[in-house]
Amino acid sequence: FKLNQPPEDGISSVKFSPNTSQFLLVSSWDTSVRLYGVPANSVRLKYQRTGAVLDCAFYHPMHAWSGGLDHQLKMHDLNIDQENLVGTHDAPISCVEYRPEVNVVVTGNWDQTQRRESSLKYQTRCIRAFPNKQAYVLSSIEGRVAVEYLDPSPEVQKKKYAFKCHRLKENNIQQIYPVNAISFHNIHNTFATSRSDGFGSICDPFNKKRLCQFHRYPTSIASLAFSNDGTMLAITSSCMYEMDDTEHPEDGIFIRQVTDAETKLKSPCT
């Protein structure tokens, strides 16, 4: 189903609450952060920043981090609708993640202060760590996804691989679309990817199989996120202007119920 009252500009990020699938946090280029009550399909709270908000994350169920073009990381108390400045960067904040196991919030920005060489040839769009913390997945604008392992031993490094996952033939011409987002299923260690032609899929990284593909959404899938219990997937259909589109379908947020048949490993890994 589609959520009511979507943002009025591009949707940059969606994050489910860490403890329940009832709440969804959404950031947008319209300078807003919204808290949705998913079962009621309603906006529980909306607050504005001074610039476009590029990412958001839950701290506790009723506290949220956000960062964006104003260079500021802020924490918002969703109970009393009050925000506090946590820190600043020298450039826009593009990524916000909270790690509860070490009680640390990590931010990334556009000032290029931290780098790691990518195994993919073209620009990286998204990086996500496996829930087991043994590997990570990254995607690029060339429609490729790479699975990389952290253990430097040659035996483990043999497991790494990359694949083309988002190609579409139109009028006998192969169209290549960026892979914009990755989200892991916390229970099965499978992951979902999304691309700029409106399609998304769920992949088994161990057996190198695609488990399912979603129907086509109205425009680019800019962000997506599994709920912590793995029963729901939030999908943002939001134009990213790769084709210089001046007119595009209305941005929207969709909630997709997912099943074990779509997300569980198909066979024992060898």
TrEMBL record:
Q: Which SUPFAM superfamilies match?
A: WD40 repeat-like
Please give the superkingdom of this protein's source: Eukaryota
Q: Which residues form the signal peptide?
A: none
InterPro entries documented for this protein: WD40/YVTN_repeat-like_dom_sf, WD40_repeat_dom_sf, WD40_rpt
Which keywords accompany this UniProt record? Repeat, WD repeat
* Listed Pfam families: WD40
Entry's PANTHER family? MRNA EXPORT FACTOR AND BUB3
Q: What is the designated name of this protein? A: BUB3 mitotic checkpoint protein
Task: Give the species.
Answer: Cercocebus atys
The opening ranks of the lineage are: Eukaryota, Metazoa, Chordata, Craniata, Vertebrata
